[in-house]
Amino acid sequence: MANRLSLERTWPARSDVQQDSAVLRFITAGSVDDGKSTLIGRLLHDSRQILEDQLSAVEQASRKRGQTGIDLSLLTDGLEAEREQGITIDVAYRYFATPRRKFIIADTPGHAQYTRNMATGASSAHAAVILADATKGLLEQSKRHLYIAHLLGIRDVVVAVNKMDLVHYDRGAFDRVRHEFAAFADRLAGAKPRLQYIPISALEGAMVVERGDRLGWYTGPTLLELLEAIEPAASVTPLPLRFPVQLVQRTAERGRTYLGRVASGCVRAGQRVVILPAGVTTTVKAIYYSSSSRESADAGDSIGLALTDEIDVARGDLIAEAEHQPKLARSFNATLVWLTNEPLQAGRHYLLKHTTRTIKAKIALVSHLVDVNTLEQRVPSQAIGVNSIVHAALTAQQPLVIDSYAANRTTGAFILIDEGSNQTVAAGMIG
Hints:
9 helices, Elongation Factor Tu (Ef-tu), domain 3, 19% helix, alpha+beta, 3 domains, 35% strand, six-stranded mixed sheet
């Protein structure tokens, strides 16, 4: 089966984590060989999150590769192809906890051909750790990752200047990389990401969990301390209710219930809601979670809803907060990250998957393309290929229930799928 990229559910489902407001979901990104997997391995190892059998397996794999010491990157590079090539291909997820909070880590690929995987990992992240090699500075792929993180609404970005051991922990090398990133970030349009900078050596463990003794000139927090202090935006600004209907179920005991996952906000028994696109208002009669009922449910909860009125509700419909409704539209503007080698074709029809609904749509017009190196906007002069970022106008065959991506990352996101190959060709953010 062809692989699809989904922006609506990319993080592993785990109810105890989803309901904990202290959880931080973050990605590691950057160019290839910047040390992302080694950094995650160091975080897990130095915070004593590794079981003995896991450590033993990694030690054995390290010896097979002819290494005398343990290769911590193998803790996250789980695929055989990754271990053989020494690169990250897929997105590797790890659960991780300290006494202060819980984390879900996504180790994303650095190679340009796996940018689609990086977009997958970033789509639900609260924060990003972008690594930069202290000997190389800001590279094109790091620019692309920072720009995609910005497009995907990640406001907290930690720039970890890695491999400080290779420059003898020189402060000047760190400052050069910091200035390069700051100059690039200053040119980003809209709300600027909050960038924090930290010098580290993932290989030697300096300033990751422990401070070490080679970076005395740096007086800020360690990477782990920075991550523990980041406050997820969703916990600061609550969003209105959005509940895409995944399945309609009828039982003798409960009658008709609508199953799905609360995408944002909170739903309560007795709450007035609107069914879209029909526009009919009703009241929540009951909320079912597993085999029991409950009075309310929050974002991330997979539940069943029963309504007081008999309404024709189907998969793909949206149950929303009556006082704060999303927009109904067939035509809209969006930013597209093109993810396939097959060039974008304006005027061609694709399948558009938005929350739980899939309909046909076409790219009516491409207004401009963004140069990730200079951030200049220009009219495309040649075929738009893989990793291109464009602003486009789309027209759907049926109305969609949408928010802007800036307002809601679930109802503001979609993917485009090639009907013939079933491949995901683009990730879109509604403007």
